[in-house]
Amino acid sequence: MSTCEQFESLTPASKVLVIDGHSMAFRAFYALPVESFVNGEGQHTNAVHGFTSMLLTMIRQHEPTHVVVAFDLSGPTFRSEEYAEYKGGRAKTPEEFSGQIGLIQRVLDALNIAWITVEGFEADDIIATVATQGEAQGADVVVVSGDRDAFQLITEKVSVLYPKKGISDIPPMTAADIEAKYGVRPERYRDLAALVGETADNLPGVPKVGPKTAAKWIAEFGSVEGIIEHADEIKGKAGENLRAALDDVKRNYRLNGLTRDMTLPTTIDEMRRAEPDFDAVDELFDELEFKTLRERVRTGLAPREEAVVLEAPAAVVVRSAEDLAALVGEEGTPVALTLDEDPRLGEVLSLATETSRGTVVLSRLDEPTTTAVADVLRERAADILATDVKGLTRRLEALGYALPEGPRDLGLEAFVLRPGAKGYTPELLVADLTDQDPGDKPKKPTAAALKKESAEEAEANAAPSLERLSRIAWLLHPVAAELTGRLDEHAWAAGIVNTLEVPLSRVLLQMERTGIAVDLQRLDELEADFSARVEDAKARAGAIVGETVNLSSPKQLQEVLFEKLALPKTRKIASGYTTDAESLSELMTKLEPESSEFEFMGRLLQYREFTKLGQFVTLLKESVTAASRVHTTYAQTAAATGRLSSTGPNLQNIPVRTAEGRLLRSVFVADPAFEGLMTADYSQIEMRIMAHLSGDEALIEAFRSGEDLHNFVGSQVFDVEPAEVTPAMRSKVKAMSYGLAYGLSSFGLSKQLKISVDEARRLMKSYFDRFGGVRDYLRGVVEQAKKDGYTTTIGGRRRYLPDLTSSNRQVRENAERIALNSPIQGTAADIIKKAMLDVQARIESEGLESRMLLQVHDELVVEVAAGEREAVERILREEMGRAAELSVPLDVNVGFGRDWNEAAH
Fold it and tell me: Which residues belong to any copy of the DNA-directed DNA polymerase family A palm domain (predicted)?
């Protein structure tokens, strides 16, 4: 069988993962402690465990269609037959490694993953053959190897993952990386290695010649052959050494070249991913005493179907009402819709049914076609498939088109099913939920290039962009089908989409349209005040050190703080010593309060605070409309926990922990036609959720009795009466109570409270001794998440956390912290969303003119119409108070005033 015939079933949609088995096994052996991996028969298994874990990670990250592992044999190869000292001098293999390669091969057999050895050749040659022939068939190939010889394989279609530390740090090496590090392109790495030599293979190079010199010669003479041909022209000692070592260079070049045309004993179809033999896996893992890997195999190695490239219908550009009617078909036909901005043509509406697709350049339409587009959007809303329907509606409104309620929001559905994804745009949904390629994004033209284009040239040059946009819209149909299947399978997700997220998007749209009024005079006053305070802080800081200092310049600050004032050094960074806020706040604690150094630091922090406040004022002024209102945008899919975020401007970023920061809220006012603003928020909602989830009787009783929570907890932890809890005690238990829900360690608590680690540890022990239910819950929630692969809120919202089983400790511990806080934060997010829906429903059912304006974290802001204050307060207290059934009451605080700050409580 010829080599090409072995690979003839590959396609451009194929991806081949080929692994250097011995290289990865040794990497795993030295990365994991030998003494921790020994089964009952005394067999060491650390290399087996690490190799299998890495293999599962590689498959999860790269989703290959084909996988093969290449191993060396112990016998001679054509290289050792030519050069007996080849690979001589390598350290003796540790005894504990004995037998582990055979076990790895048994694991691969159970996983139905192909592995190859070929007598007389090395694993590198097998890899090179697979990579070369895979690329020739148009497939992508991912090589995993710790051997630098693999660098010569790198092309646009072949990438190399080169392990650096342990088994989790495996960065990709690109052609640019090779050129940056070695000064040559990958195809010339073989030439460089021939000149420099390879210690690991016992191949001596030219004495005193390193990569820089070798790369310079290659750049000058093109290749090893060119260098040998012109060896007499190379001057100096390096030239002498080269001429004396020419035989070594020629031999190195022969031996380090990888064989790319072997006839392999395994066909490409035998490399195709297949379902593991789970019975064999269970039997072998029982023998090896592996526990955590078993579930990873079951969830991570389902066979992947090779992609079938869907043939899209021909794209059209809509130029008339008749074109549009032919494109969208009859009423009831699903129509995918996207709205994008092309740099040449402006706003482009892409429309696609399952059998047609096209684009509408909105700026080029005549009046009848514009009317036809408006009619389709208005009359066919229930047929439309889109993403971010709320944002799409507002963008269309700005262009003069109305989009009523009814479109299906694929982005919201995908978010609920897969929170924390890179994004939920049409293009990203196509990439994540289908095997289809939307095509490369055309390069954005420069402003200068656009000026030179004629109208005809612009239209011709925009054609690839329109083709791609309409294809993405057309591919939303398979996206929708995939999401339908997943929602049918996961009733919990369908419930959240239909009863919470979609209805909420309509409420948020109404809030965004309404916006909130701004007192422009007050805004100007604050701008002047903050600017004056910035200048005052700058002047006073300069007076202290006797020179004008640019307090925004880290370089000047470093000179003043650590040279002129000789303050204790902060954390070392590349440019010197850090001047970040946390480090400077900590530095202040080391200074005498009456000293000039302390005063300088105070002025510096004052400068930073008022600069930040001034920047927010500027941002607000840019956001105010002609009607003196600000219209923030709420993102439902930005936070994986389900919490809403705010942009343009971000009203959640208003600093409220200082009196000066709270002044910013005073610029947000009630419309003159309304009586005032009412705010309502939950008191200690996250701790109430913690009490409910943990079932801790002491904590539940504290909330039911109406006692001050932190005083109660402080009395328990410090063993004093509640009245004897000091402000310092209260501050400590408050920080600890909230911190524990976010995975705060004793070290983190010590840093936050500026106490010793031992004291923090004692504090946490005392807390857990009194509140054992909280301790048990926090332990159990992470363990359950590891078993399930996800966390769950009270309302059933899931957050999947595959990194809980990561071999990288930092990654795993971060996932554990997320597992701790997601049920609490996610439940809090669900509760406020439910409350918003119920409050809005009551306002409408009672026929009130008051309107909900803002949601910030756990707070709602309502603009109260004249005579409706009492009714609105009743609605807020009742609906927010019963938004969830917990074992503790939901306490709602309410305030009222003419502006947002005055309405605080």
Answer: 661-868
